[in-house]
Write a structure and sequence with these properties.
The chain is of the alpha/beta class. The protein has 15 helices and 13 strands.
């Protein structure tokens, strides 16, 4: 049985339990308000963790898998149904009902002290500390449609509004082959947030879909190249990406654990293939938990990962498993933090406090130097 959003709204409060059957990663990224996350709903039913006295309304991304799960639960004696069109349908409905809340969302960044200190202040600190923005720059703010890049766009708008020095902004969205829903969510969120996006289309997703080895790596490289090229065509000298503090520390640990090397995301890089172009990361000092807090305070909903590999209600995959190496590393850091509250700062600072005298070897400009050279 399927239940529409209208029918769901008509149900008496407290008479049903809304269950998000997607994985924890997808749930944490965004869900329907009031939903509980139960990825293995059948096991939960077998263990007696689901109520028999309330209707169970299940949903996944598109309402396909949740329909099958609801049927299984009905056979087990539960009053269960699937939400028609799933979380994707709910996102589409929210986009169509949106109100003009641009000014309220903008005010939250500056007027609310917690966001001013943890978002805007850290954003401007990174720009000053790493000299990311210079007078006369024309910056392509690259928007993927997720929470990080959308917030970055709003922070750049606020910086430009304060007009400390002259620079130009272009808000660039590359459509690598999004489905209709994800394209709609991006366009409506941009409109609601007051971000005038420039959208251009590619078919990158189609190009990498059949690649078996490291499709995500190839996709990221191709997307970066298209962004550089389009930004250069628009007269920009820099592209800005929305990688944040947590991305930085996860990359450090990932490089050690999975690649056997010490390196991280840099605050800025010169392009090797597009002369005169530079990549900057102004969210470098902004914590992901603060981005989520801003998102939730403003009741915003963004796309997670929109590639063809994730269109069937799963989270982003790098290695053929349901959880990427980045998520695995994120979980490792979370476990370490339970016994060492300073672990995140220590990881971040480790790459700026390297004692070369105590390394058996290091690499400089692609050349390996050993400690025996100066022993």
């Amino acid at each position: 049985m399927e239940l529409s959003l209208t029918q769901l709204a008509d149900l008496p409060e407290g008479s049903y339990l809304l269950i998000d059957t997607r994985d924890e990663v997808s749930y944490e990224y965004g869900t329907i308000e009031g939903a509980e996350n139960v990825p293995d709903v059948i096991a939960a039913a077998q263990e007696g963790r689901l109520p028999h006295d309330r209707k169970l309304v299940l949903f996944c991304m598109h309402g396909i898998r949740s329909g099958d799960l609801a049927s299984e639960l009905e056979q087990m004696g539960y009053d269960a149904c699937s939400l028609k069109d799933g979380y994707g349908g709910w996102l589409r409905a929210m986009a169509m009902r949106r109100e003009d809340r641009t000014r309220e969302i903008e005010k939250s960044i500056i007027k609310r002290r917690v966001f001013r200190e943890r978002l805007f202040s850290r954003f401007t600190k990174a720009i000053k500390q790493y000299e990311l923005v210079q007078p006369g720059d024309k910056i392509a703010v690259c928007i993927s449609g997720g929470k990080d890049s959308m917030l970055m766009a709003k922070l750049f708008q606020e910086l430009h509004r304060q007009n400390k020095f002259p620079f130009e902004l272009v808000f660039l969205v590359m459509d690598p082959g999004y489905n209709e829903l994800n394209r709609l969510v991006i366009e409506n969120n941009a409109a609601m947030l007051g971000v005038p996006v420039t959208i251009f289309e590619t078919r990158i997703f189609d190009a990498v879909y059949e690649i078996e080895k490291s499709p995500c790596y190839l996709c990221a490289r191709m997307r970066r190249g298209y962004l550089y090229r389009k930004a250069q065509e628009l007269g920009c000298n820099k592209i800005a990406l929305g990688h944040h503090y947590d991305d930085v520390i996860e990359t450090i640990l990932m490089s050690i654990l999975w690649a056997g090397q010490v390196q991280t995301m840099m605050p800025k890089l010169h392009s090797q293939n597009f002369e005169g172009m530079e990549l900057i990361r102004p969210m470098y000092l902004v914590r992901e938990e603060d981005i989520k807090a801003w998102r939730d305070f403003n009741h915003l909903h963004f796309i997670q990962c929109a590639c063809h590999f994730t269109d069937t209600c799963s989270s982003c995959r790098e290695d053929g498993t349901s959880v990427s190496k980045r998520m695995e590393t994120k979980n490792i850091i979370a476990q370490l933090k339970k016994t060492n509250p300073f672990v995140e700062g220590n990881i971040f600072n480790s790459v700026t406090n390297v004692n070369v005298d105590m390394l058996p070897a290091y690499k400089k400009d692609g050349v390996v130097h050993g400690f025996l050279e100066n022993y």
